[in-house]
Design brief:
The protein contains 12 helices and 13 strands. By secondary structure, the protein is α/β, with parallel strands linked by helices. It folds into 2 domains: about 15-150, Rossmann fold; about 155-295, Cytidine Deaminase, domain 2. A 6-stranded mixed beta sheet has the order 6-13-11-9-7-8. A 5-stranded parallel beta sheet has the order 3-2-1-4-5, with helices on both faces. It is globular.
Amino acid sequence: MPTTPANNATDDNTVGLLAAWGRFPVVVAEALKRDGYRVCCLGVKGYADGNLARVCDEFDWVGLAKLGRASKWFASHGVRRATMAGKIHKVNLFQPMTFWNLLPDWTTFKAFYPHFVARTSDRKDDTLLLAVVDTFAKGGIEFLPATDYAPELLIDEGVVAGSELTTAEYADVEFGWHLAKQMGQLDVGQSVCIKGQAVLAVEAVEGTDSCIARAGELCRQGGFTVVKTAKPQQDMRFDVPTVGQGTLETMAEAGGRVLAVEARKTILLEDSAFRTAANRLGITVVAISPKGMDSQGGRQAA
């Protein structure tokens, strides 16, 4: 029998998956299948991995601005609960005429009219993603956190790879942590790059990898720290901090030395391969608890 997400008991074993860019949607689909769920997946055109078709029970492609079609497709396949996984490159949304070039259907047009046409509402990450979730809810489809189905993806507190932090590294992590939390509170981004308690780069619409690459360009000597945290108001249904081998490879190329993430609020993709890659690339990875940072009572044992 399939496992059931906490506080969402149901006899229905069908789960919808709205998949965007990256490895994360495939990992989620595989976890759902292992637990016995029937997975009905819609892959966003231009973003999703085509291999999802071989993992899921039902699969089809959908345009980024076709929320009406997506809602009807899920409903026709018996989906009442769904989850989303993967990244939409938000920077693309700021290209000329992007909204119109996507040929939005009527449902999408109504949902995003205030953001892209009337401009009476903002385009912050949480605002746009919540509009997506609310639109599906009107069609009778409830979105739940992917980590409700695959809680093992959330990283536990401790040293993930490498050695304990040095005093200087810990100082950078602590400084970066509080900065990242403030940026998250404003819904700006999740990641900051720090060297000697100086800010090298702050993530905005460009994404974590581009933020890290920019830090490398500005700090040729390398050895900087990347801190990635959940927002204080983090909605676990979407935009959950995620790290994988790609993050490590970008850091290695840019000269990053330490990666600090928030324990139990960060998704770690392909745990074993990630740890192997971190050790091979000489990158220390630690998962820190909010309690340890908020106490500011001296150095925390990672």
